[in-house]
Each structure stands twice: as C-alpha cells, then as structure tokens.
Amino acid sequence: MSIAYDYSRETPAAAFLARPQQQLLIDGRRVASASGRTFKSLNPATEQVIAKIAEGNEADVDAAVAAARRAFEGPWRTMRAAERGHILLKWAELLKQHADEIVEIESLDAGKPVAAVLRQDFPAAIDTLTYYAGWADKISGDVVSTREDALTYTVREPVGVVAAIVPWNFPLMIGMWKLAPALACGCTVVMKPAELTSLSALRIGELALEAGLPPGVLNIVTGPGRTVGEALVNHPDVDKVTFTGSPGVGRGIMKGAAGNFKRVSLELGGKSANVIFDDADLDTASKAAAAGIFFNAGQVCSAGSRVLVQEAVYDEVVERLTARAGAIRMGDPADRATALGPVISEKQMKSILDYVDIGRKEGALLTTGGERVGNRGYFISPAVFANVRHEMRISQEEIFGPVVSVIKFKDEADALRIANGTAYSLAAGVWSRDMGRVQRFAKKARAGTVWINTYGYTDVRLPWGGERDSGLGREHGTAAIENFTEPKAVWMNLNV
Ligand code: NAD
C-alpha cells in the first residue's frame, strides 16, 4: 500500500488544512496555547503530517473552564429554551452545508474511508444534534402530590460546566453524542478531543460560533490526556465529566472526579459476543459478523470481536468469515470504493500485531490476514482466528483492531457462559430462528445492548452503554437528558 496526498490541492478541506496552526477555541476565540507549544497530527493512511495543533496545558484549561462558567451563568442558561434549540438547529444546518469539508477532515485525520464517514459518522452526528436540539424546550419537571397544604413540584436544571473527553475512533460522532445533549440541557462545555484526531472538533466548533453559540458555551482544548484531560477531571469548577475511552483511563477519571464529587459518565471498552446458533440464516449471520468486527478496522467499542458458533455449523461459519475477510476492499480511504482503511497509529498497529502473535502462541489457528500491508500507512489485513478457546487472551482482552476470535459452543447454556464470561458488558448479538431461544438469550446476556438477528445498529433514541469494564451510566435518549440535568424539589406552603 502506498498512498500520498498533495495537501495543497483545492479540496473542500484545503483552506482549513493550510492553516499554519490549528488553535484552541476558548471564549469564542481561536487562540494559541498558553505555552505556545504545538503537536503534529498525522494521516494514518500516509503517515504525512496534516496539521500542527496547539498543545494545551493547565493554564488553557483554567481559561476555558472560567469562560464556560461565565457563559453558563450568563447567556446560555438564561436564554429561552426554544432559542437554544434554534441555535443548535442552525449549527446542524451549517454542518450540512460544510459536509464535504468535514467528511474530508475526518477521513484524513482518522484514516476512515470517506464512504464510511458519509454513511455513518457524519449522518449520525447530524441526527444526534437535531434530536437533542428538539429536546431543548421539552425538558420538564413534575407536580407531585404530597400534602394538602403544599404545592410540591420538581424542575430539571442543567448540571453546569461539563468536561467532554473524546476518543479517536469516532471523533465527530462520539463528540456530538456528548455536545448535543449537554448544550441542549443548558450546560456549557470544555471539550478535549483525542490527540490523534482533534481536527473535526476544531472545525465544527468554529461553525458553532457562526451558528450563534455565545462565546464560552463551547470551548475546545486540544492536547495530551495526561495534562489537559487530567486538569479537566481534577478542576474544582467542572461539574461533570463525560468520557469515552479505555477502562484504565476511566478508572483514573472516577478517582480524580471524587475531589469535588463531579458527576461522571463513562463509556469504556468491550469484547462483545456475536452468537450464531445452528438454525440461523448463516449467510446473513456471517455477513453481519464480518461487518461487526471489520467495520472501522475493528476500532469500535461494540465490535463483535468474539463470534461464538454452535458446533454443527462451526466449520462452515469459519469458512464464510475467512472468505469475507479476504474479500474486503482495503485501500485509500479517499477512494469511495474502499471499505477498510488503516488503523489509527503506529502504536495501535503494533499492539494489534502483538495480539496476532499472542493468538498464534496460544494455539489458535489464523485462517487469514493479521499482517501489515505495505510499509507506509498503518494497514492490517483483516484477521480470523479459529479454534479459539474462551480462556485465551485473544478471547478475553480488547484488541481494538480487525481481528476476530471464533469460538465453538455446544448449547444455549454454554453460549451464555462464554458470552457473559469477560470483564465487559457493552453489547451482544444472537442469531437463531427460534424466538424463545433468542429471547432467553436477550434476558440473560450481560450487555447494555442486545441485537437479535442483526448486529451493530445504534440509534441516538436508544440508551447506549454498559457496566463493569464497559462503563458507568448510559448515553443517548432520555438517559443523556438525565445525565446533564439535576432534579430540584420545590416545596411551597399554601397556608401563608
Ligand atoms: P484512551 O482512554 O486512551 O483515550 C480517550 C481520551 O481520554 C483521549 O481524549 C485521551 O487523550 C484522554 N485521556 C488519556 N489519558 C487521560 C487521563 N489520564 N485523564 C483524562 N483524560 C485522558 O482511549 P482511546 O485509545 O482514545 O480509545 C480506545 C478505547 O475507548 C477503547 O478501549 C474503546 O473500547 C473505548 N471506546 C468506548 C466507546 C463506548 O461507547 N463505550 C466508544 C469508543 C471507544
């Protein structure tokens, strides 16, 4: 694989990428970092530097949090709720007008195929923003019956200043999962994108200002997790942290947030089981199982990284998955026919290739893929491991790459034991024509989402998240409205 881009070409994102430096967004202005330092962002498909980005530190976080606090106490919270919704809708319109530019930025920065960003990331971000814009003037409390001499009711108030910490696998979409509900509820936000993929956030942040978002309502501080992320988590004037990332960092966030009892919601990892019984439609199930692990090069928290197959059809499913993996079109993300791009970074590539070695050493059978392709760009051929035992590391640990472990099971009880037998609980899939069996599975699966005879769908109207190493709390739907508001009880004495 050898791809090279000429970044001076007149493409929709050319003007943005030509900037000498991508700056922080604080209090409605683009500013250099307090230290004046920058870091580089690479295109994972070519390893070319595509941007120099301001590297924030504690001083920048202080300035951003102060701006967010002023905006919270000032224009955003006091604005008519409907007006907040209108500004968010205007932002969605502006994003759509700049779709080509944003899609190109996301594809170059994250190595995502343009076709996938157009089909998934971008429309999902717009859908999320539009959905929560509609919520802005529909957040309400209740009148509650208590005593004859009292009027008692609840109101829902915004939690305040929110720190949103975002990973690199779906920068635009997951960023919007946090921004849209927080802003709709009347909170203000300091966002920290992942260092590897900060660009789309910076661009959409500028468009938010154009849409009329008052200064300070959305601030973006780019930079390392250890400085910017930790400063946000430890900051005494941040009221809530919403985080998506790894369980290790999530654990640290819970500890850091304890200082001033910040509200915390965490979306963490997964090792989701996609369970295929012998009466399933094997063609559809195998196709969905391949998409379930190889989409976004397996860098998906809910990837179906364990495919559990009943013994009678095990060999057939391994064969079908192997054939599908070999046929996936990998290549230049800018080519609309490309289905599989590179993984995000050299570090991630090495970690995935290490897991392929571990799988081999554990005695699993690699039926296809698992190799670096070319010597420029972080491309890995999609890998299928057969003869995987439940105890193996490749069956227990999140690889976060295009590697699937195919595990044999005997019966329903065996399938459940294996499916529920990891530290994670984000999602699970089940394939069978027996409706009793799939419903029994859905009841007993330890998973925040269960897919029946399908895999991988999400919708902002449905709750999303898991427990244990998969996280704490839920995003999406009404759950997110509850995340970003606090109920207040009001008691009025009617006898005065
Ligand atoms: P990560 O935890 O390394 O980083 C996530 C974000 O946290 C980044 O912005 C990073 O800069 C920041 N960060 C790093 N150290 C920090 C610290 N000490 N304090 C505060 N912030 C810090 O994870 P990643 O490598 O970016 O993403 C991969 C992981 O995210 C995987 O485990 C994956 O399963 C998980 N993930 C989960 C979901 C979900 O919805 N459950 C979605 C996407 C990714």
> Widest sheet: strand order?
14-17-18-13-12-19-20
Output the number of helix runs: 16
What is Rg? 23 Å
Q: Give the amount of beta strand, in percent.
A: 15-25%
Seen as an oligomer or otherwise, the chain set is single chain
**Any idea of the CATH topology of the largest domain?**
Aldehyde Dehydrogenase, Chain A, domain 1
Termini separation comes to 80 Å
Number of domains: 2
Q: How many runs of DSSP E, i.e. beta strands?
A: 22
Shape call: globular
What do the pLDDT scores average to?
A: 97
CATH structural architecture of the largest domain: 3-Layer(aba) Sandwich
For this entry, give a set of tags.
16 helices; 496 residues; Aldehyde Dehydrogenase, Chain A, domain 1; single chain; Aldehyde Dehydrogenase, Chain A, domain 2; binds nicotinamide-adenine-dinucleotide; alpha/beta
Description:
The protein is an alpha/beta fold and 496 residues long. The chain has 2 domains: 14-268 and 470-488, Aldehyde Dehydrogenase, Chain A, domain 1; 273-452, Aldehyde Dehydrogenase, Chain A, domain 2. It is built from 16 helices and 22 strands. It has helices at residues 14-17, 58-78, 81-97, 99-110, 114-135, 171-184, 199-210, 225-234, 247-257, 282-294, 314-327, 346-361, 393-396, 412-419, 435-444, 477-483, and strands spanning 24-26, 29-31, 38-42, 49-54, 143-144, 150-158, 161-165, 188-192, 218-220, 240-244, 263-267, 273-276, 306-310, 365-368, 372-373, 379-380, 383-388, 403-409, 427-431, 449-452, 471-472, 485-493. It has a 7-stranded mixed beta sheet with strand order 14-17-18-13-12-19-20, with helices on both faces. Strand 1 and strand 2 (29-31) form a beta hairpin. Helix 10 packs across helix 11 (314-327). The longest helix is centred in the first third of the chain and has 22 residues, at 114-135. The mean pLDDT is 97. It binds nicotinamide-adenine-dinucleotide. Nicotinamide-adenine-dinucleotide binds at residues 165-169, 174, 192, 194-195, 225-226, 229-230, 233, 244-246, 249, 252-253, 267-270, 301, 398, 400, 426, 471.
